[in-house]
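Newbie here. two chains, one complex. Structure please?
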Amino acid sequence: MTLAMPKPDAEAMARLPDLLTRLKGVLPADNVIVDPRGLKPYECDALTAYRQPPLAVFLPETVAQVAAILTACDALGIKVVPRGGGTSLSGGSFPLADGVLLAMGKFNRVLEVDIENRCARVQPGVTNLAISKAVEHLGFYYAPDPSSQIACSIGGNVAENSGGVHCLKYGLTTNNLLGLEVVLIDGSVIRLGGKHLDAAGYDLMGVLTGSEGLLGVVTEVTVRILPKPSTARALLIGFPSVESAGDAVAKTIAAGIIPAGMEMMDRPAIHAAEAFCNAGYPLDVEALSIVELDGPPAEVDDLMQRVSEIARDCGAVSIRASNSEDERLAFWAGRKAAFPAVGRLSPDYLCMDGTIPRHRLAEVLTGITRLSGKHGLRVANVFHAGDGNLHPLILYDANLPGELDRAEAFGADILRLCVEVGGVLTGEHGVGIEKRDLMGTMFDEIDLAHQERLKCAFDPNHRLNPGKVFPVLHRCAELGRMHVHRGQLPFPDLPRF
Amino acid sequence: MASTLKPRDTRDVAEAVAWAAAEGQPLEVLGHGSKRGLGRPVQAEHTLDLSALSGILSYEPAELFMTARPGTPRAEIEAALAARGQMLPFEPIDLAPLYGAGGGSIGGIFAANLAGPRRFKAGAARDHLLGFKAVSGRGESFKSGGTVVKNVTGYDLSKLACGSFGTLACFTEITFKVLPAAEKTRTLLLFGLDEPAAIAAMARAGGAPHEVSGLAHLPAAAAALSQVGYVRDAGKPVTAMRLEGTAISVAARLEALRGMFPGIAQEELHGMNSGRLWTEIRDVAALLDAPLVWRLSVPPSEGAATVARMRSTGAPVTGWLYDQAGGQIWLGLDGSDAAADKLRRELPRGDGHATLIRAPDALRAAAAVFQPEPPALVALTRRVKGAFDPKAILNPGRMWAGI
C-alpha cells in the first residue's frame, strides 16, 4: 500500500458515542452499523487494493436524516464519506478510519417519469441501468452507460461525472442532468435546475457533477431521457496495427461522422476477451475496433458503408457488420467482458483511465509497451477510441511482494505519458485516492488552490470526503489569505485610454 | 479618474487585476462590450477591455476542438469552422440585433453561457467549454480542464465559469468542443395549431426517435414578421420542426415526422429557408420592436399555460414565441415597467426562471435581471464569488446587487 491517507483523528473517533446520541430519534437503530462484522462489507469500493473499515455506516432514508447527519458530524468534527453503489475504481468512496460512511442505498425510488418533458426524477441510490429499465416500456432510455451500470448508482454517476461507451455521441453525466437536490455540510438543502434548462446563476449543478463527494450529498436527481434510436448496428473491424486502427478513428471523425460508440482493443485484450466469451473476434489482428451507428435504418446503412470504406482505406483486414440485434450484442459481449476476461489472465489487475488527443494514440500505445518492459508487468489495452479515453489494464499479483507497488508505478508512468502528450489523468473514473498524488503533473499550486477554495466555499472544515482528489489538505484560512502590495502600478507600459 | 485598461497578454491581465485588487478598484470586464445590455449595469470606474487578446491558437478539426483567445470575434471563429465544415453545436444566440452592439467575442459567448434552438439536443455553451485559462479576482492566472471531452480531473470549473458573466475570473484562453456541421437541413412546418396543441405536437416530435434539432412555435403575429415567405404568409400560427443530418437520413426522418401529424396542414423548408427561419428564431427577430424582452425557461409542457397566466396579469405583453419545444419562451412587453415580480409569480412553482434580456439601464439596475435565488443558494453563491474574487472587483453587481 503506497497511498497514505491523513492520520486518523483519535479525538474525533472518541466522539462517536456523542454522534450516536445526537442522532437518536432521527435515525432508527436499524439504519446504523457500528459492529466490526457489519462494517466489513463496506471496507472498500471497486479499488479493492485498499481496505479500511469506516468508523460507522449510516443508511439514511430521508433528506431530513441526511441533513441531521451532516449537521451533527460538522458540529462534532467527524468526517463523512458518501457512498452510492460502491463501484468507484479510483477509491472515491474509500472509507476513512475516523469518518462515517454515508451509504445512500436506501434512496432507491424512481420518483417520477415525465415523458412530456422527457425526464425522470429519481433518488440517488437508483442504479444507472434501473433508470433505463423504468422508461424502457415507453421507448426511452438514459444515455450514459458506464460498464458498471448494473450496480453503480446515479448519485455516484453525478459524483464522478461517469461516461460510458456512448458518450461520444450522447455526452457524459453532466450533459444529461437537468436538476439536483443537494444537502450541504451545514444541513441546508438546495435545489439546482429542475425540468427546465439553464437555470440562472452560477452553474453549481455543473460544478457539483464530478466533484467526487467533496462538495455536498445528492439526494435527488432529474435526468434527461432520450427516445431509443430506431436502429443500432455495429461494425467489427480488424486492423494489422494499432496505427492503422487509430488512423481509421481519426479519419471517421474528420469525415463528419460521430458514431454512437467507437471502441478499440489491442491484441492481448482481444485474445483475453475471445478466450473468455467466444465473441467471434479475429485473433490474427493487432487491433480490433467496434463502431456502433444508430438512427433511422437508411442513415445507419449509409454510414456503415462510409465507415467501412474509411477502414478499408486505412488497411483493415477484416470487416463484419452486424445483421441482427443478437449479432450486435455479440460484438459488444467481448468488449464489455474485457475487464473480467483480463482478470482471468492474472490474479489482480489495475484499470487505468487516461484521456489523450486521438491523433497521439499510436505513439502512446508504443510508450505503454515500452513501460510494460521497464516495469516487467503485462498490460492489455481497451479504449473508448472515439474520445481518446484509454483503459490500460495492468496485470499483477498482489500476493507477490512489491508487485502492487510496481503496478502502481507503471500506472503512474502511463498517466504521466497521457498528460505529456496533451491529455489528462482521468477521463471517467475520477481522481479519488488513486490519482490524487499525480494531480501535480497536470496542475500547478495556483491551479489547485483555485479548486480548493471552491471546496472551502462548500465545506470550510473539510468534513466531506477529505483525503481524496487533492494531494495536500490546506486549511481554508490559509488558502483564503491574499498578499497584496498597495500603491504601486506594476504595469507602466500597459495601454490606457 | 475613469480609465480603460487594455491588456495585451495574460501577464497584463494578471497585473491589472492584481492592481485593482490591491486598490479595491472595481473593474468592468469586457470582451467587445456587445452584451452590456445583458445583466445589470456594472458600476466601475475602470474598464478591463480584453479585445486585444484575440486570435485562434489551435484548431484541429479531427480532434473536434478549438483553442482561442477570449477577444476573438465570433465572426472569425465561425468563418474558420465553416471553412472546415464544422460549427459551434450549441448555436449561440447572436445578440447584435437585440442590442445593436456588434456580434461580440467568443469569450462573451461562454461568459454568458449562450445557446440557441439546438440547446435541448446539443447542450449550451457550458456543455462545450473543455478547458480554460483565466485570471481570478486574486490577480492570479490559473487553468482548468484540458482539450479532451472526457476529463474528470479535478472540479469542472468550466461549468462554473460559463454563465458567470466575468464575475469570478477573466478568461485569457478558452478551449471548446466543435462538431461537424450537418450535410442537410430540412424544416417541417405545421400550420394552424393553437398553443397548447403546438406544445403537445412538439413533445410528441421530441419524444420520437427522429432526432429533431429544433422545435419552435410562432403565434400568428410572430409568424407574420418572418422573412420566410411560407411562414410570413401563412396567416396562422406556425410550428417548426428541424431535422439535420446526412441527406439520406434527413429524407427518411422527414417522411416519418410528417406521418406523425396527419390532417394538419404542412409545408417543408429546404436548406436556405431553414437557415433563415432558425436564425430568426434564435435571435428573437419577432420581438425586435419590443422595448422590454424577457426570456423564460420552464418545463416545456408548461410553456403555453405559463404564457396564458402571464398575459392575464395585465402586464402589457405585445408578442411572444416558443423555442426549445416550449421550454424557452421569449416575451415582449410594451411600456416602461418590467413587471418583474408580477411575471415571476406566474412561473411554474419551483421549476422555472425568468431573465430580463432587454430593458433600459435604469430598469436593469432596479429590477432583478436574473431570477432571485432562495437564501441558502444566495449564501452559497456569495461564498463561491468570494473564493474566486475576494475583493469583489470583477463585474460587481452584474448578476445580482451586492454580489
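Moderator note: Residues 1-181+373-403 of chain B form a domain with the Uridine Diphospho-n-acetylenolpyruvylglucosamine Reductase; domain 3 fold (CATH 3.30.465.10). The mean pLDDT of chain B is 96. Thread marked as resolved.
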